[in-house]
Amino acid sequence: MRRPMVAARLAAALVCLSVTAYAADAAKPTAPKPTAKAGPVAADVLAAAGPMDWRSPNPENLLYMDLAQGRVIIELAPAFAPAHVDNIRKLVREGWFDGLAVDRVQDNYVTQWGDADNTRTPKTAQTKLAPEFVVRGDAVAKLPFTPLPDRDTYAPEAGYSNGFPAARDAKGREAWLVHCYGMVGVGRDMALDSGSGAELYAVIGQAPRHLDRNITVVGRVLRGMDILSSLPRGTAALGFYDKPEQRIPIAKVRLAADLPPDQRDNLVVLRTDTPTWAAYVEARRNRREDFFPVPAGHVDVCNIPIPVRTAEAKPIQ
């Protein structure tokens, strides 16, 4: 007969505890909302950038991929994947990609192109290469690296190297490019050495950072993401096109260095090692535009678009 009374006392005690806890929480001062420090917005930072804040990519590192939809321009990153970049140059110069096609467009993931039917054999390029997932040793010390002040989910430290989003370990013994939107990687099979650059892909969705250090990343799309991200989605497994006639033909791929200067796209990229870049990062970490009453006070390495413009154009965000 005592159990109902005990239960009632316990219930009353719990109610008291709940009320007390609520009152204690209510008495705590409300944490102030983060506010951005006074400073310029990103567009103003870019408008004030001088000629020394921009760099002209090496023509040996620029790929022009021409589709019926327009031109896609890719900057290669030989500092992170020298063997693959060299092999891609050989493939381009022997006309490997000419007449091939985009054969995979997986929504929110990647657009991929190459020899879908495996009918070609490279003339001078390698068909297999040792993976270049990370840079190690002395090469890491030679890499410029501008770290972000914020913690990264996938790496001890994230930042930018020569205009590419990158990451490195805590002791500076390894560095690698990361899979942000627009980054270009080398397609491979299960074997780690099965990639050569004959199959390439560009990230067209939310950054698949789980691929970092598992696939060789060779560059970044500077212009033409509007083309690659708006192609019809493949309906077969993994976004491949079900029928050959659905594929998007590649007219040709050329290195800018192999074209006369008057046929090149004169692009410049914002440097990632200057005070202007630091101001731009801060303007992206804490958005000061009127639309943002609450700044984030944090930014992800893939959430800072690295500006690209034509050399004659006025800087824009």
UniProtKB/TrEMBL annotation:
Transmembrane segments: none
Class of the enzyme per the UniProt entry, highest EC level: isomerase
InterPro entries found in the cross-reference section: Cyclophilin-like_dom_sf (IPR029000), Cyclophilin-type_PPIase_dom (IPR002130), E_coli_cyclophilin_A-like (IPR044665)
UniProt xrefs under Pfam families: Pro_isomerase
Keywords, in A-Z order: Isomerase, Rotamase, Signal
Segment forming the signal sequence: 1-23
Domain of life: Bacteria
Protein name: peptidylprolyl isomerase
Native source organism of the sequence: Nitrospirillum amazonense
